[in-house]
Amino acid sequence: MIADFLKRLAAPQTEPIDQTDARLALSALLVRVARTDGDYATNEIARIDRILAARYNLDTSAAQALRAEAEAVEASAPDTVRFTRAIKDAVAYEDRLAVIEALWQVALADGERDAEEDAIVRMVSSFLGVNDRDSALARQRVAQA
């Protein structure tokens, strides 16, 4: 299943991927950001679960199952570009801003700004077509919440 998903992400896109694949791509991207600093902490895992539950109207068990699937996908995926391309093609700009906010929520879940996490969120923002100003404003909204 993971190989099929990655194959779909790598294939030339003639039309946007379906919402199920987009959801898995976003989930895997959240996991990738959390793992970037080498410390996949329980507070980051809990934050991912809450984001997935709220974003996709899932109960706790379903959010945890989606995260577990995303962890396997993330571990198998060679690069971040595939996730971001899938999300960019499937999600409107305003919703991509919400994706950036979700990534900042995960990156800041431990209460610290890590240079590696900052770098990957900035890179993903660029890949998603979200400008630096909008990404910075998203980070500020998350930090103030």
UniProtKB/TrEMBL annotation:
Pfam families, per database record: TerB
Record-annotated Co-chaperone DjlA N-terminal domain positions: 23-140
Residue runs in coiled coils: none
Classification via Gene3D superfamilies: TerB-like (1.10.3680.10)
Signal peptide residues on this chain, from the entry's feature table: none
Protein name: TerB family tellurite resistance protein
Lineage: Bacteria, Pseudomonadati, Pseudomonadota, Alphaproteobacteria, Rhodobacterales
